[in-house]
User: Which sequence fits this backbone?
């Protein structure tokens, strides 16, 4: 009886089987009240949390917040005092304080047992990253048939400079079939732009000869991109974008990835890395008319960066601070 009480089970009826007969023991209300009160007294010490910890639990503190680490390293209490257990505590280890929406995962509509692994980019992943880029370059859909004569062209334009000039801020996600998505970032977007002008664009000019067409002849989509390398205008985001969003991002995931938590987890990795190195905001450039891409980043908490003095016909910018 006492064991049942300690487990929080104040039995109203205890039924047993003895000598072929059913035995029932009825507790009166006074006995039940006494057992419940005893249980509460036994459990009360387990619910005590020191004052410094309780003050930290009421705010969005992380392991990097002042006083948090010192409190939990003191040895006075267990480090998983936060609601959510060990998973919540591991999330608090990330240097992020305003990205709670990235920890809310909607379960997939159709249950599956696929496992996705997010890891840092390796040089051996370049070919697969380029392949994902081709298969998502047309507003998130496959654009491989648009550039049949230059299979690496769209990758060189969109992701090559990240892989070459900023590999330490690049992540990929893979399943049993290989890489199925990537998140590529640069800590300093202005510095990345300068490096591209100095070394990446010259490499592209050497790799892709200028298209030669007679008067009135139309350029193919691939030739238009190549011509853009030669007629490149030094137009980029306005300075106000860099003030609040000093970092830049390129992120795509194959449509075959059905788990909606994958892009959130990838973005969490990127934002944590950028935040730990001093950044506080990131932006993406979006082609006008790419509705799927706009929806994709909107679900990840990105908002359009409006600036009245900046007008470009084919591109706009979306950003997120953290």
Assistant:
């Amino acid at each position: 009886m006492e064991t049942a009480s300690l487990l929080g089970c104040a039995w109203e009826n205890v039924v047993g089987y003895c000598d072929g007969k059913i035995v029932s023991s009825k507790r009166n209300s006074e006995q039940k009240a006494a057992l419940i009160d005893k249980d509460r007294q036994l459990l009360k010490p387990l619910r005590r949390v020191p004052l410094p910890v309780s003050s930290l639990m009421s705010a969005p503190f992380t392991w990097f917040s002042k006083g948090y680490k010192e409190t939990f390293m003191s040895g006075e209490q267990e480090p998983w005092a936060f609601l959510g257990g060990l998973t919540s505590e591991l999330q608090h280890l990330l240097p992020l304080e305003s990205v709670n929406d990235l920890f809310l995962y909607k379960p997939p509509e159709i249950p599956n047992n696929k496992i996705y692994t997010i890891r840092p980019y390796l040089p051996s992943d370049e070919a697969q990253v380029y392949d994902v880029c081709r298969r998502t370059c047309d507003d998130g859909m496959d654009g491989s048939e648009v550039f049949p004569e230059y299979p690496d062209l769209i990758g060189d334009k969109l992701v090559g400079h990240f892989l070459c000039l900023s590999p330490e801020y690049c992540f990929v996600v893979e399943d049993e079939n290989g890489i199925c998505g990537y998140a590529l970032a640069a800590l300093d977007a202005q510095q990345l732009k300068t490096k591209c002008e100095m070394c990446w664009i010259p490499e592209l000019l050497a790799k892709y000869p200028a298209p030669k067409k007679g008067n009135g002849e139309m350029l193919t989509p691939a030739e238009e991109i190549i011509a853009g390398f030669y007629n490149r205008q030094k137009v980029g985001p306005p300075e106000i974008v860099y003030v609040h969003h000093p970092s830049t991002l390129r992120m795509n995931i194959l449509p075959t990835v059905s788990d909606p938590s994958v892009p959130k987890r990838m973005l969490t990795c990127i934002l944590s890395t950028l935040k730990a190195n001093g950044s506080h905001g990131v932006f993406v450039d979006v082609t006008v008319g790419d509705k799927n891409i706009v929806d994709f980043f909107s679900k990840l908490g990105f908002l359009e960066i409006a600036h009245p003095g900046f007008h470009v016909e084919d591109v706009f910018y979306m950003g997120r601070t953290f």
